[in-house]
Every structure is written in structure tokens, then in C-alpha cells.
Amino acid sequence: MIATPQSCQELLAHMVGFDTVVAYHSGVAEAERKLSDYLAGLATAWGFTVRELPIEGACGNLLIEHCIDPTLPWLMFDSHMDTVGVEGMTIDPFGGEIRDGRLYGRGACDTKGTGAAMLWALREYAAGSQKPRNIAVLFSVGEEHVQTGARAFVEQHLALLDWTPAGVVAGEPTQMQVLGATGGFVRWKMTTLGQACHSSKPDRGHNAIYDMARLVTALEDDYIGKIRATHPLVGNASAAITVINGGKQVNVVPAEATITFDRRLVPGEDGQRELNAVQALAAQVAASRPGMQVTHHQFESAPPMGTVDGGQFANQAVTALEGVGISSEVAGEPFTTNGNHFAAAGIPTIVVGPGDIAQAHTPDEWVSLEELDRGIAGYAAIMKS
């Protein structure tokens, strides 16, 4: 029996009650499965078409469709079901408690709140008379680790559909500000390889930490410090060495040292080009130091999200929000979302949703009920505009 919510608040409380900590962190291969099944049953009971879009080794994306007329364009809304971990939380992460005008729990803000508001707005849209387009809501998986679901949708699932979105609204907590551009990234590990030996006779080995120290200095002076790319909405491109490891014990010269390098991209930059530049610099450093070896591995990337249609979709969304009393403007952020992958596939994409990113991933994560109501009104306005 599907628990039928009587309000969007109740729907969100149900959604928060499901443990959907991302599989990469939890080790649960289909972390979103129970929530996906609940939403599929609810959407079916409400008269929508439901299908699961499979992903090998993971829970599939859940697609909810409301087709008015096959000849009309489709607008798709996306919200990810997975969350970050719950360690250190000061509230019941799955309680969905409502107090002082807020709903608490892991994912309440990032970003089950957007999903609940989208589905509730679709319910209102379907019951109304103003229906100028077909609407789909995609509940995607694995966003908190390299946007698994969004990648699968553009690389595999689009080909399975008999329609292509004319636009995508990706849900993230933006306080209902419309993001028309966001940052991308390319990140990977670099390892220097030496030769271990007893530290009482270090000349018999090759110290990988010394090599890594040279590489880190070169990266800071000759690459990171020279990044100049900027974007009017997203801001400045950047890079950082975020993790470093090396050595096993105090009396052994280390045979390996590893860093994690995080290069943040702005629209107009190419991740492969930046990767090539860093690899060339690392090769130059290695060539100048006898015995030094550098390997590159564990690559991850996401393209930056720029405007596909000259900003027309974003501007239309701002106008629609203003029509229901939500003041917004086209903005940008340096972080990465599912929207990056939809835009890279050539689909006009914006990022907008209820909640404040400052509350995401926090020990007492919450979303205000006022923001949730604004999300419903805003999404419904975009659907109808």
C-alpha cells in the first residue's frame, strides 16, 4: 500500500525517511531503490506514466511522464534521489521532523526538497487547464558521485525515448534563483614512484616524497598561479591540491607519494586541454630530476555548463517566476550539478530550486516550508509559462 501524502510537506517527509546515501559512500549498490519504488507507485496512482531507465550496476533512473499531446514539446525536470552520508548528524537523518517552519533530515535541502516540489507541481499541472507542453520528471541516481544518473541519461537513455527535452530544469537548492551557468571539473591522482629502502641508508633508494615536493611546487608556481580564465556568471577558474599521501613508516624511504588534483573549470574551458597541460608540466619536472617517475590515474570530469540557446530559456524562467511573485535573475555558481551533462548534450538547461545551498550536507540539514511552497509555485509557473 502506497502512503498517499496530503501535502508536499508530507511527501517530502516520506522521501527523507528513505536512506539513500550515495552508493559510492554507503557501499549499497542500489541505494535509491526503495525511494524509487515508492515514487513510482505514487506517480502511477496519480495517473502518470512511469518507467525505470536501467543503469548497469546501479539503481536505474526513474522517469515520470505526463503526455498531453505527442506533438507538443517536452520540458523535463530533474532531481537526484541520493544524498551524502549521515555521519556526525545532530538530528535523526531520516526523521523528516517538522518544527519552527522547517523540515529536517538528510536530503531535505539537497535535494529531495526539489524532487518533492517538482512532483507536487506536476500533480497540480495535470489537474489544471493550462497545459501547453508535455512534462517529465526524472528522479536520477548517483549525483553525489560524478553524476552517474545524468551521465547515463544523456549517453544511453535519450536514445530509448521517442522524445527529446526542449529544455531541462535541474533541481538544486538555489533559493529559486535561476542558474544559467555552472562550473565543471577535471580531477585525478598523480603518483611519484621511487624505491624503498631502510632510512639509515637513504642513498640506496629513491625518495618519492622528495619528487612529489618538486612536483607540488611546480604545480603551484607554474600552473595554479597562472590560471586566468574567468566567466561573468561563474567567476574565476581555479585548481587545488586537495589530498596528499606518502610513506608507510618512519624508518622506510617511501616508494610512493600521491596527490589528488582538482581543476575547476568555467564555461569556455576544455577539461582535456587542461589535463594535457598539467601532464606536460609533470613530465617536464620529471625530466629535470634523475630517476623521477610520475603516473596519472583515477580520472573524473564534468564539463562546465554554459548557455546552449543564448540564455533564452533562463530568461523565460525568470519571467515565469516573476509572474508568481518570485524575484530572480540569471546567475551562476562554480559548483557542478546534473545540469552540466544535459547542457553538454545540447539541451538548454537551467538549475533552480527551493532551499539554501548553505544548508546542504550539514549536521542538521533542513529546508524551510516557505521555500518548499515557493518551489512548488515556481516549478508550476515554469511548466505553464
Automatic annotation (TrEMBL):
<dbReference type="Pfam" id="PF07687">
    <property type="entry name" value="M20_dimer"/>
</dbReference>
<protein>
    <submittedName>
        <fullName>M20/M25/M40 family metallo-hydrolase</fullName>
    </submittedName>
</protein>
<keyword id="KW-0862">Zinc</keyword>
<dbReference type="Pfam" id="PF01546">
    <property type="entry name" value="Peptidase_M20"/>
</dbReference>
<comment type="similarity">
    <text>Belongs to the peptidase M20A family.</text>
</comment>
<feature type="domain" description="Peptidase M20 dimerisation">
    <location>
        <begin position="183"/>
        <end position="287"/>
    </location>
</feature>
<keyword id="KW-0378">Hydrolase</keyword>
<dbReference type="GO" id="GO:0016787">
    <property type="term" value="F:hydrolase activity"/>
</dbReference>
<dbReference type="GO" id="GO:0046872">
    <property type="term" value="F:metal ion binding"/>
</dbReference>
<keyword id="KW-0479">Metal-binding</keyword>
<dbReference type="InterPro" id="IPR050072">
    <property type="entry name" value="Peptidase_M20A"/>
</dbReference>
<dbReference type="InterPro" id="IPR002933">
    <property type="entry name" value="Peptidase_M20"/>
</dbReference>
<dbReference type="InterPro" id="IPR011650">
    <property type="entry name" value="Peptidase_M20_dimer"/>
</dbReference>
<dbReference type="InterPro" id="IPR036264">
    <property type="entry name" value="Bact_exopeptidase_dim_dom"/>
</dbReference>
<dbReference type="InterPro" id="IPR001261">
    <property type="entry name" value="ArgE/DapE_CS"/>
</dbReference>
